[in-house]
Amino acid sequence: MVKINKSKTINNKNDVWLSFLSESSVKHGNQDYFGAIADLTKAININNKYPIPFIRRANIRFEIKHYKNANEDLTKAFKLNKECPINKKCSEDSLVNAYLLSALINKNLEKIQYSILDLEKAINIINNSRSKIWFGEIQELYEKKGDFLRELNRYDEAILSYTKAIIHPNRVNPRIYQKRGWLYYHKSNYSKAINDFSRGIRKAKQIDKYHHFMARGFSFIGIKKPEKALDDFKNALDHNPLAIEFYKDFFINFIPKEICDLVVVYFGVNLEKWP
Questions:
Q1: What is the helix (H) or strand (E) element at residue 109, kind and residue range?
Q2: Confidence (pTM)
């Protein structure tokens, strides 16, 4: 009677599982998305108790816009991560990225409220972590949360989220100042808007500075300082000759006619409504 070496069988099975994971990574890198999904599915069919293959398959399905299937994969992965042995659980990095991916998937499924919850779970992992410094990740998560709250017109909460993204002012991306500044503008808090756009001007790349100058100019109009607004519009034009043209709709829809007339006279631009 032939004895079956169960240990060897298990090892061979694990080797095949790892092989499919490896092959899927190569195919994904070569943009063979469906081949990569097929290999991950084979790995899952061999062992469906661990979360990583589901997360990888969700990521690829997200890339090819199969959002519903990607969402199902992540739901399974999060459940498995709670149940599987500790040595098979996701690392903190993988779990944070998985929740960020879930947030993006839910956004595309028009479930922004779920996206916000996903981001909060990722933020909680980072806040409770002692394994590394998460500066870049925490800034991205709070910024993304602010973006989603802004889409829901929850401006006060969005401002708070952007503020939390600015944990190291010397290293913050200037676009966060711009986003928060526009929310202050829409709340008619022009002084705070001016402060944020001024910070953006100091930190932004030369090619992007005109956006901050234009936004600060609009804010100066809000506090009845048209001469400073005109100075900012001039600075914007110095950085991009088409700056005023870029914001033409904003002038037409939100800026008083007498200010628009001043801009036309000073800069020789056309602010007539589009035909």
A1: none
A2: 0.88
